Amino acid sequence: MFKWLLRVLRALCLGALLGFSALHAQTAAEIGLGLALESAEIARYSITVFPDGRNLPPGQGSVLQGAQLYQEKCAVCHGAKGIEGPAARLVGSGGFFSWRDPLRPLRIAKYPLLVLSVGASWPYATTLFDYIRRAMPRQAPKTLSDDEVYALTAYLLQRNGLVDADAVMDQQLLPQVVMPGLARTVNAWPPS
Amino acid sequence: MSRAHVPAPAAQALAPLPRRAFLGTAIAWGAGSVAASARGGEPLAARLPDAMTTPGGADLPYGQPSVQERKVVRHEHQDAGFSVWRSPLENQRGIITPSGLHFAVHHSGVPDIAESGHALMIHGLVTQALRFDLERLKRYPMVSRIHFLECAGNSAANALSPFALNQTLGELAGEVSCSEWTGVPLSYLLQEAGVKDSARWVVAEGADAASHTRSLPLDALLKDAMVALYQNGERLRPSQGYPMRLFMPGWEGNVNVKWLHRLEVTDAPAYSKDESGLYTQALADGRIERFAFPMDVKSVITHPSGLQTLPDPKGFFEIAGLAWSGHGRIARVDVSVDGGASWVTAKLHDPVLDRAFTRFTLPWRWQGRKATLMSRATDEHGRVQPLRSEWKRRYAMHSFNHYNAVQSWRVGTDGRVENAYV
User: Fold this and answer.
1) Please, which pLDDT band fits residue B170 given cuts at 50, 70 and 90?
2) Most Cβ neighbours (<10 Å): which of A73, A187, B64, B305?
């Protein structure tokens, strides 16, 4: 009788142990607390534009329109020509401060972020559209229309000598612009 | 620089102080106290400090440091439109940075985000796009790990300035801190969403004004990343990404996306603004290096360091510092007091953790003469900190990211400590 009771108790304990180990062995996929993400919600938030032009929205903007918008919305931080700062440098290819400037190292030490411009270092033109649309103008990000973002993108590419003064940018043309930064790019990942 | 690579004992300069010297001082002080207490019938309060004779004040719901420590704060620096807050490493001991002193860089300010309404979205090359609100996310198994976090641009001043700026360690190199981070391994969430075979990268995006975004390799995230919810036992602070941030141990700060709200699984990187411009390195040969994620092996002497003054009387001083590597554990730290002519291996204090601050110390008897203090760390993979000249040869003159060269401090005969290039 007593032995029988012990056997039952032992079986119960084993069962409890098995139950716990089953919980511990449960894979993440089985936790399953994530909720289905609706496609409308993805569409609402998914703004990343890829180098091949994926996810660029419809719309268009000209260099001329961009020039006017730039002076209204951007020049206060990036300078009238896109090289003066104080915010990051947008135009130029060889370094912000002249190589003949004797105070160049000091100026660079003061404004290190201004050294390499969009035209000098960015490998893909699509990044301009992506960043202006998500982050600019700084005090009112995400307030520009897609057409306005295309126009500003066109203007900055023109200021960097990468498209003509009569260029109009849209989702077909933008990924085709060849940026000097691409040829200079070396990716450290994956590590060699 | 062969002179830097053969550690040799500098016996006299670094001889440990005999234990007896301390004991002798303590006994003398104790004898004096006994003599004072022998005086007559005055009340105790007359001869004791105010704190021992007056009831103390109230405590606070959330504790604060002593008001005496009010100068121990982060240093703020503004550059090109965003602010940088640097940790006062020279005031800290141990390896954990208090959360309120943790360095921070915000590209577009600190957003005020409530838990309710905020969620992590995972979509793109997955079988089932998923959404995790905070209530559900907090039910997943969590891990806690102690890791450093360092801005890619930490120590930029030493990288760029043609002369050594006379600043504190915090001002020069305070864009690094170390915390216990607690959160949900990202692999649990990615596996639940079901990553497709063509997936290679993940674009991580924050819910701040500029929607800060970085592209990260999927394999590395599956191995190491967590969605961090807690720092040093409390929920993340707003400047560290409340209510959640991505955490990748050992990788440059800005990829640890704060205010994380979206992960898009993709076949290729997006070349976002920061991987195209700011967090890239111009190499000496003109090429631009991108996606250099891990921070390399580095160390700094915290005591004594810039703008500190060695105490009078001369004699014993403990050189102390911090070492870390984005590739693993610290294996050794060598210290020189003579500008690199000779090196002695410092003591590493437990715990020596993977991709975390490691505290090192070395006893030093200062004779009142000029000295140049340096520390050089080596990690478990044999990576060694370069000298400044070696680092500068690899990068363009105007490059400033991933600076990990040996930090030197010059001690004057008056005991004052200054930043120095060696």
Assistant:
1) very high
2) B305
Q: Do B276 and A188 touch (CB under 8 A)?
A: no
pLDDT of residue B18: 43
B224 phi-psi bin (left φ>0, alpha ψ -120 to 50, beta other): alpha
The reply to whether residue B288 touches residue A184, judged by beta carbons under 8 angstroms, is yes
SS3 B193: helix
- Give the Cα separation of A169 and A163 in Å (integer): 9
B1 or B191, which is more confident?
A: B191
Q: How far is B275 from chain A (nearest CA, A)?
A: 9
- Residue A19's SS3 state is helix
Alpha-carbon gap: A42 to the closest alpha carbon of chain B (Å): 7
B190: CB partners within 8 A, 6+ apart: B122, B126, B202, B218, B221, B222, B263, B265
Chain A touched by B123 (CB under 8 Å):
yes
Give this prediction's pTM: 0.88
Cβ neighbors of A82 (< 8 A, separation 6 or more) are: A70, A74, A89, A90, A91, A92, A117, A156, A159
Q: Which of B272, B276, B327 to mutate to test the interface with A (most CBs of A within 10 A)?
A: B276
